[in-house]
Structures are given as structure tokens and as C-alpha cells.
UniProtKB/TrEMBL annotation:
Pfam families, sorted: Aldolase_II (PF00596)
Domain of life according to the entry: Bacteria
Annotated spans, Disordered: 1-25
Species of the source: Variovorax beijingensis
Class II aldolase/adducin N-terminal domain sequence ranges: 34-211
Name under which the protein is recorded: L-fuculose-phosphate aldolase
GO molecular function: actin filament binding
Family: Belongs to the aldolase class II family.
Gene3D superfamilies: Class II aldolase/adducin N-terminal domain (3.40.225.10)
InterPro entries in alphabetical order: Aldolase-II_Adducin_sf, Aldolase_II/adducin_N, Aldolase_II/adducin_N_sf
GO CC field: cytoskeleton
PANTHER family for this protein: ADDUCIN, PROTEIN HU-LI TAI SHAO
SMART domains registered for this protein in UniProt: Aldolase_II
Length: 257
């Protein structure tokens, strides 16, 4: 069937929406440490913090990185918990030590000057999908932000605390925003905290839907590639990403960042 519509209906720039607010506080007024802390608590609420596995890092203009201290659950993180480290994992500000797995994030930052925030976790459904040996499939509208934008590393290279794992994972990511890591978890690497968090929430839900559908029917009906590309570009507009981040943040207990 022919799909007819005006150009204005399909141009994402014509669908831009106003920036979000949170009790009168615009998203832009959060510091990066506050956004990192909010992201951690959102991830905890979404089930991404079952163990000590998982890290969030944010690149700073001076070449340092914000992250969280080892042995702190995502749900515990507040802005004052955040530490700043250099590219040798030495602590420059804050208390505690970084997770040694942050080392593989540094490989991503070296290869990708466009990336300013990396999130890596092992949420339940992504972890289950990673055990099947299959990549993420684009079979639902809500998965389209990953269309041609989620790489797949089919073999687990081992615990990612050495340079070799960082080299393998960053190479598998390539120029995409995400990578599904077999027998492991996933990585989101984007220019902003908001976008990395947005994709981290969406990929767990996409993995859940894929596993449920496959368990029920054994096969998937994939989305048409042209429509998936259109949806990908629309749903990754900055205004939609930022509005989604603020929506997720509003669902947290209102106790500050």
C-alpha cells in the first residue's frame, strides 16, 4: 500500500518539541555530576544495578572523566558521590576509587572523539539476550532507535579490565551508538549523558520484548528498513531525548540530584 503524506509530516525538524522542565527546573540547569547521579538512580530503578557490574563515565573538556566510586550501587549515587579521574584511573577529586572496568571506556573515548558519555551495565533482559548468541532485532517501533545503530560482539573477550578487552569492545562498537556484548551486557556511547541514558533504558525494554516474542512465537516480524530509519532519526532528536531524560528523572523520589 502506498504511504502518502506531506513532507512536513516526515521531517524530524518539523516535529521538534520544547525543552523539558522538572518542577520548574530545566534540564540544562543540572550540572554534569547531577545528571550522572540522576542517570545512575534511573538505571537502578530500571533494574540495571543488580551487582557491582556496570559503570557510567562522562568525558570533561580538560580530558578528565566523571564516574562513580567502586562498591557503590547505582541507587546510592548522588552528585556528591561522583569522583573525577584521569586517563590512568587516578582520582583527581572525590572519595573512593573507580571501577577498574572503566579502563575499557577509555578505549572508546580514544577512538570516538564524538563520544562524551559511556554507560555499560548488565540488565536482566539484555543479559539474557546476550546468552542466546543473537543480535538485537528491530521488530518493534520502540526498538527503532537501534536500527543500524547497535553493533554486536559475538564472542566474550573476558573480564573487561585490561587493554585487550577495551581494544576489542571499542573496535566492535565502531561508529555506532550501542553494542550488544555476547555473554555479557551492552554499551551505550553517545555525545551526551541524556542520550546514553535514554538508549540504556530503551535497549533493556527492546531486549525484553524480543525475548518474550521469540519465546511465544519462535520468530519475529522485522520492521521495514526504510520506516525503521525514519523512526530512528525521529526518536533520536535531542528534544525527544532530553524530554525523555526529564520524564525518567521525575519518576525518582524528589530528593535532589
Amino acid at each position: 500500500m502506498h504511504r502518502s503524506h506531506n513532507v512536513s509530516d516526515t521531517n524530524p525538524r518539523n516535529h521538534d518539541i520544547p525543552g523539558p522542565s522538572l518542577d520548574g527546573l530545566t534540564g540544562g540547569s543540572w550540572s554534569e555530576a547531577e545528571k550522572l547521579a540522576l542517570s545512575c538512580r534511573i538505571l537502578a530503578r530500571e533494574g540495571h544495578s543488580e551487582t557491582l557490574a556496570g559503570q557510567v563515565t562522562v568525558r570533561q573538556a580538560d580530558g578528565s572523566f566523571l564516574t562513580t566510586p567502586l562498591a557503590h550501587a547505582f541507587g546510592e549515587i548522588r552528585a556528591q558521590s561522583v569522583i573525577r579521574i584521569d586517563d590512568s584511573l587516578r582520582v583527581l577529586e572525590g572519595r573512593g576509587v573507580p571501577n577498574p572496568a572503566v579502563r575499557f571506556h577509555l578505549w572508546v573515548y580514544r577512538r570516538r572523539p564524538d563520544v562524551n558519555c559511556v554507560i555499560h551495565t548488565h540488565p536482566p533482559y539484555v543479559s539474557a539476550l546476550s546468552m542466546t548468541g543473537e543480535p538485537l532485532q528491530i521488530a518493534h517501533m520502540d526498538a527503532t532507535p537501534f536500527f543500524d545503530d547497535c553493533a554486536f560482539l559475538p564472542e566474550w573477550p573476558g573480564l573487561p579490565i585490561a587493554d585487550v578487552e577495551g581494544e576489542i569492545i571499542s573496535a566492535a562498537l565502531g561508529q555506532k551508538r550501542c553494542v550488544l556484548l555476547a555473554n555479557h551486557g551492552f554499551l551505550a556511547a553517545t555525545p551526551t549523558i541524556e542520550e546514553s541514558l535514554y538508549l540504556s533504558v530503551l535497549i533493556e525494554r527492546a531486549a525484553r520484548n524480543q525475548l518474550v516474542a521469540q519465546s511465544a512465537y519462535g520468530r519475529l516480524k522485522l520492521v521495514d528498513p526504510a520506516l525503521a530509519k525514519e523512526s530512528h532519526d525521529f526518536l533520536l532528536q535531542r528534544s525527544i531525548v532530553n524530554a525523555s531524560f526529564a520524564m525518567f528523572a521525575r519518576q525518582l523520589p524528589q530528593e535532589g540530584a
